[in-house]
C-alpha cells in the first residue's frame, strides 16, 4: 500500500518511518510537516493510506481531511485521546493511534486500513460497467471507467484506454448516450474525454497520459464548469 506521513514533529516522523520500513506491504511515498504542503500532492497522486497528525501548524488534521478529493484511508495520530470520538465520525478514518504507540498497535491500524481498501476494491470491481466493442470480427471488453478518451476521425471512432486502442466504424454522437455524464465530457467536435484522467490544461489544449487533445472554443466553458474552475 502506498502511504504518506503528515506530521510536524520530527521524532514522531522518525517513529512512523521506522515502523513503515518494517512492513513489506507499505511503500512510503512522501513526508510532510504541514497539511498545506500535502494538499496538492494528495489531490494529484494515488495514495492508499495517510498517517495524519491532528495538531498541525496550518490547520487541524480533521479540517484537512475535508479538503481532499476522494480521500484515502486515514490513520490519525495524536497525543490527545479526547479527539478519538470526533475522529471516528469521519468515514475515511480507519483507526486512531495515541502517542506514544507500539509497533503492535501500529500493525493493527495498518491491517484495518488494508481490510478497508480490499472491501472498497471488491465493491468497485462489482460496480464497474463494461461494454463490448466489435472490432475486426472480435469482441473486445472495455471497462467504461478506464476509457481515457474517444476520438472521431471521419467515419471511425477510436476508443483509447491505458492498454488498448480500438478503432471501428461509428459516430461520436452515439457515445454521448453510452457514457456517464459525471465523468465524460465532449471537449471538441472530435473528442470526448474522461475528466478523471486530465493531467493538465494549457490554453486550448489538455493532456491525458502524454496525449495532446484540443479543446474547442464552444466546449471550453462546459469543461471548466465540470472541473469546478
Automatic annotation (TrEMBL):
UniProt keyword annotation of Nucleotidyltransferase present: no
Pfam families: LytTR, Response_reg
InterPro entries given in the database record: CheY-like_superfamily, LytR-like, LytTR_DNA-bd_dom, Sig_transdc_resp-reg_receiver
SMART domains: LytTR, REC
Keywords, sorted A to Z: Phosphoprotein
UniProt keyword Metal-binding present: no
Ranges where the Response regulatory domain occurs: 2-114
GO molecular function: DNA binding; phosphorelay response regulator activity
HTH LytTR-type domain location: 131-229
SUPFAM superfamilies: CheY-like
4-aspartylphosphate modification, residue list: 53
PANTHER family membership: STAGE 0 SPORULATION PROTEIN A HOMOLOG, TRANSCRIPTIONAL REGULATOR-RELATED
The protein, known as: Response regulator transcription factor
